[in-house]
Amino acid sequence: MMEKTVPLTQRETYEPTRFTEFLWWLSTAEKELLADAVVDRNRHKIIGMTVLGTWAFATLAWTYFFSTVAASLWLAIPLGFFMGFIILTIDRALIKGINKFSKNKLLPLLFRALLAVTIGTFMAQPALLYMFAKEIRLQTSLDNEKKMMVKSKELTDLYKNKKATLSAEKESLQQELELKYADVAKARQNFLSETDGSGGTGKVGIKDIAIAKRNEYQKLDGEYQQLLKSEEPKIAAIETDLKTIDDTVKKEEADFTQYFNNGFLTQIEALNNLIKTNPALQFRYYLLVIILLLIELMPVIAKTILPSGTYDERAMQREAMEKEMVTSNISKEKELKELYNSLAHQNDKEAIAAFFDLTKEDRTLKIKSFSSRWKEENNPTFDGLWEKMKSEVLTKQEH
Predict the structure, then answer these.
(1) Orientation of helix 279-305 relative to helix 106-131, angle to 10°
(2) What's the rounded Cα separation, in Å, for the pair 51 and 31?
(3) Is the CA virtual torsion 202, 208, 210, 216 positive or negative?
(4) Residues 178-198: pLDDT tens digits?
(5) Of 112, 159, 227, 355, which sits most exposed with the smallest number of CB within 10 A?
(6) Which pTM does this prediction carry?
């Protein structure tokens, strides 16, 4: 049985799968040109896989980031997919501009690397927060305690002078009362000693000296009671002010603790503090940052290091052909428009000439008709006849 002869141009009948076409789309390759580039098919599939991996990583990283700041996970998920799509768009734009025919390769490559590093550095943060979640929670607790201590010190310094003034005033009033009470106690002791014979004159009973000492004691006690009555409200007011200050400090400390949270910036701060105080973590941290940066740079790196095959040549030639065809089509369209305008002008001239030829005899008859009526009318002026003929017989110039 003879084999059917297939023309040379129809022997390659490669049909890519849907997934392969999707990978080609991720790599920004043109399916129509890549179908005939046998070697480049796999290269662009590899590039597409790197873009797919970066896309998935970006979506997960941004979803976790939004989960730390959004109130609901159902809000964080669509936001994560949205930002992942933006990263995908940026990556496709970066690798689309890389080809072997670029005249200035260094500057675009530096720009792409800077953009990729910037995005990758930010994307690495949520991943690191997820990996070190337990350590970060512990460090966050320690950081909050330090913040609380700093806040307490600030509040203490804020009310320090006022409390010192009130305390000094209270102490002064209390000392004044104590000194007065000491005088009263001494006078009372002198009076008692005089009455029982243990002091003074040594005579038992209420005598003149004892009476004098009693009067002195009663006088001092009355002064003390009067002083106590006037000073106790002042001391109570000072104690109330001091208690108000203490209550205010406690309230502000309680209010300050309500601002403690587990948000993104708080976790980042805890991570930085953890790295500073934990040398064992530093090396692993920077290693993970490099790895995560490489994940973001994968599409650019893959597009740069993979050798170029026939696809780029086909794309360049196809673009050159399309440019040439656009120029040719515009030129031909211009010629057709000029031909149309020329023929239209010629035909319009002929139509106008024919119009005047056909209406020549009718215009002459109409002029004769005007002339006959003019003769029949009584006292008509020639100027009136001329004006009427101008309005109904003569033509006007086009503007």
Answers:
(1) 140
(2) 17
(3) negative
(4) 887 787 777 777 767 766 655
(5) 355
(6) 0.54
